[in-house]
Design brief:
By secondary structure, this protein is α/β, with parallel strands linked by helices. It has 2 domains: 279 residues, ATPase, nucleotide binding domain (Nucleotidyltransferase, domain 5); 185 residues, ATPase, nucleotide binding domain (Nucleotidyltransferase, domain 5), CATH 3.30.420. It has a 6-stranded mixed sheet, sandwiched between helices. Strands 13-12-9-10-11-14 form a 6-stranded mixed sheet, sandwiched between helices. Strands 2-3 form a two-stranded antiparallel ribbon. Bound molecules: adenosine-5'-diphosphate and magnesium ion (MG). It catalyses: L-threonylcarbamoyladenylate + adenosine(37) in tRNA = N(6)-L-threonylcarbamoyladenosine(37) in tRNA + AMP + H(+).
Length: 472
């Protein structure tokens, strides 16, 4: 299913967050007129080099001032950069083109919802094949919808982790082919940072530091965003993420998974009594900001069995009584799943205000943040604490290319990117993929006693890489 909104890993040999590259190649930015708001006014853009080789990056390549915030000439507010973002970390193939003034020039998403609904989860090999089948078309459509060609781009941004290696590889390969052929810089993107930062695209007032709750099918993260590329992890899940619990519950209740389990469950829950099934809130005894949804899933399973819901029967074939039982379970599940978020956010706000008293916002993003019940409950928590909630629109909460392109804009402006790959890169080239890649270090005082947290960290955190680079 290919949808587009016109407004609407392998190894990069070194996604090394270059702070001061020399530029034997041309970095393009084009002066945008009104043509993209009014396509009929289109004229070929006048290209100009973004970094004049004599005065900016290349001229300031001494290692004495690598701090990206201070390095003279390594930062630009140029708002006419045009960046292609590619996202294939899990089950959505997405591409978008975003200009550095925040204008979304195009957005295309091809979802694998049909595969998910058939197989009940993401099967990496099948997901990879689905990405391979559509990636060229998705990127081409993003270019076409923006009335651009590859030569018009300033850079290519692509998700390099975390995610499924087989899937990440498809996007990275495509990005490198374009960047190699058209001599464009490339920016490796952290998927979860992109979920958080897209909120700065939609809310220009949103300044660092802020608190962010990132909730999706594979992640449950509470982070304190001190600055671009500088994150402190306050909490994560010790087992499943909330989106996984929504998807499983929806499947067990026989819902139509065609548009995803989460939306189907949200809809059915509106018919149910949220107090009817007494599920217990996870991790009540743990006074930290970590999450757990595996136990709630088990409780749901038991409730379904004890109410004799015939889960082989789709909801469309359920009689009135059966439908009511399912709706009650859905509503009760949702209430407790979200209460768990509320409790953790309440505590995280306290922690965050201690660490960074100037925070004013809680960003909530990731697929589950498109849920209206989630938004309204978290809005209540945030308001009670004198903060503001920032939620991207639903199509920017679920996986998308805009968030990748925009995060590319933010890092590119700071001079963090790699030079173009060779145009003739071999097909079996080993890319730098980061399937397990933390955003930041854990907040020491927030470590959970309930530690079944998966510790295997193949890569150092994004934050530590950026800090190491800026202290070089
Ligand atoms: P990923 O987990 O691959 O990063 P997304 O960020 O796109 O993917 O999030 C997908 C998850 O969000 C899925 O688990 C899906 O069920 C969930 N989701 C999407 N919309 C809703 C909704 N309205 N209510 C609850 N969950 C939702
Ligand atoms: Mg996601």
């Amino acid at each position: 299913m290919l949808s587009s909104f016109v407004i609407s890993s392998c190894t990069i040999p070194s996604f090394n967050l270059l702070l001061r590259a020399t530029f034997p190649y041309r970095v393009r930015a084009f002066a945008i007129s009104s043509r993209l708001r009014n396509p009929t006014l289109f004229l070929p853009p006048p290209f100009k080099p973004f970094f004049a080789t004599s005065s900016s990056f290349s001229s300031s390549s001494s290692s004495s001032s690598l701090n990206p915030l201070n390095a003279c000439g390594s930062r630009t507010e140029d708002d006419s950069l045009v960046i292609l973002g590619i996202e294939t970390s899990c089950d959505d193939t997405a591409a978008a083109i975003v200009r550095s003034d925040g204008e979304i020039l195009s957005q295309v998403v091809s979802s694998q919802a049909d595969l998910l609904s058939r197989y009940g989860g993401v099967a990496p090999k099948m997901a990879e094949e689905a990405h391979v089948q559509v990636i060229d078309q998705v990127v081409q459509q993003a270019l076409d919808n923006a009335n651009l060609a590859e030569v018009d781009l300033s850079a290519v941004a692509v998700t390099i982790g975390p995610g499924l290696s087989l899937c990440l590889r498809v996007g990275v390969q495509k990005a490198r082919r374009i960047a190699g052929k058209f001599n464009l810089p490339i920016i490796g993107i952290h998927h979860m940072e992109a979920h958080a930062l897209v909120s700065r695209l939609i809310d220009k007032e949103l300044q660092f530091p802020f608190l962010a709750l990132l909730i999706s099918g594979g992640h449950n993260l509470l982070i304190l965003a001190h600055d671009l590329g500088h994150y402190l992890q306050l909490g994560t899940t010790i087992d499943d993420a909330i989106g996984e619990a929504y998807d499983k519950t929806a499947r067990w209740l026989g819902l139509d998974m065609g548009k995803g389990g989460g939306p189907a469950l949200e809809e059915l829950a509106r018919e149910g009594d949220p107090e009817s099934v007494k599920f217990s809130i996870p991790m009540k005894q743990h006074k930290d900001c970590n999450f757990s949804y595996a136990g709630l899933k088990t409780q749901v399973r038991m409730a379904i069995e004890s109410r004799n819901v015939n889960t082989d029967n789709p909801i469309s074939a359920a009689d009135c009584q059966d439908r009511k039982s399912r709706a009650d379970i859905a509503a009760s599940f949702q209430r407790v799943a979200v209460l768990h978020l509320e409790e953790r956010c309440q505590r995280a706000i306290g922690w965050a205000l201690n660490i960074a008293p100037s925070i004013k916002h809680l960003v909530v993003s990731g697929g589950v943040a498109s849920n209206l019940y989630v938004r309204s409950r978290l809005d209540h928590v945030v308001t009670m604490n004198g903060l503001q909630l920032v939620c991207p629109p639903p199509n920017l909460c679920t996986d998308n290319g805009v968030m990748v392109a925009w995060t590319g804009v933010e890092h590119f402006r700071m001079g963090r990117f790699d030079p173009p790959p060779p145009a003739d890169e071999a097909d079996d080239f080993v890319f730098d993929l980061r399937p397990r890649w933390p955003l930041g270090e854990e907040y020491a005082e927030g470590r959970s006693e309930a530690r079944s947290l998966r510790r295997a960290r193949i890569h150092p955190s994004l934050t530590s890489i950026i800090q190491a680079a800026s202290h070089q």
